[in-house]
């Protein structure tokens, strides 16, 4: 299941792994820092256009960012199966 928290967690993890601040990513993506913060906290889902902008701002293809989200989904599914 694709939910806002999973999407946001994956985006945040990629950003932090790359050592890039929210201010830099949001600036490159052309969105507000508070908008990015809301996405990372799972309060908002990015539109497809914003998703592509974020992937570019993170220096990766959108498909690679989607793979990171898929990894988060798998982690969530594994947790559910353990219960």
List keywords for this structure.
83 residues, mainly alpha, 434 Repressor (Amino-terminal Domain), 75% helix, DNA-binding, Lambda_DNA-bd_dom_sf, TransReg_Diox_bact_type, DNA binding, DNA-binding helix-turn-helix protein
Please, could you describe this protein's structure?
By secondary structure, the chain is mainly α. The protein is globular, with a radius of gyration of 12 Å. The chain has a single domain, classed as lambda repressor-like DNA-binding domains (434 Repressor (Amino-terminal Domain)), CATH 1.10.260.40. 22% of the residues are buried. α2 crosses α4. 75% of the residues lie in helices and 0% in strands.
- CATH C-level class is Mainly Alpha
Distance between the termini: 17 Å
Structure annotation, total helices: 5
According to CATH, what is the topology?
434 Repressor (Amino-terminal Domain)
**CATH-wise, what's the superfamily?**
lambda repressor-like DNA-binding domains
Work out the helicity level: over 70%
Number of strands: 0
Work out the count of structural domains.
Answer: 1
Question: Average pLDDT value?
Answer: 95
- Largest sheet data: none
What is the succession of H and E elements? HHHHH
Please indicate the percent range of residues in DSSP E strands (runs of 2 or more): under 5%
Q: Give the radius of gyration.
A: 12 Å
In terms of per-residue confidence, which ranges show pLDDT below 50 for 5 or more consecutive residues?
none
What is the annotated CATH architecture? Orthogonal Bundle
Apparent shape:
globular
- Class from secondary-structure proportions: mainly alpha
InterPro entries: Cro/C1-type_HTH, Lambda_DNA-bd_dom_sf, TransReg_Diox_bact_type
Domain HTH cro/C1-type: 11-65
Keywords: DNA-binding
Organism: [Clostridium] leptum DSM 753
């Amino acid at each position: 299941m694709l939910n806002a928290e999973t999407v946001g967690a994956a985006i945040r993890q990629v950003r932090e792994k790359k050592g890039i601040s929210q201010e830099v990513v949001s600036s490159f993506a052309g969105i507000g820092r508070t908008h990015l913060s809301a996405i990372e906290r799972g309060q908002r889902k990015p539109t497809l256009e914003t998703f592509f902008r974020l992937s570019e701002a993170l220096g990766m293809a959108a498909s690679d960012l989607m793979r990171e989200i898929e990894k988060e989904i798998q982690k969530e599914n594994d947790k559910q199966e353990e219960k």
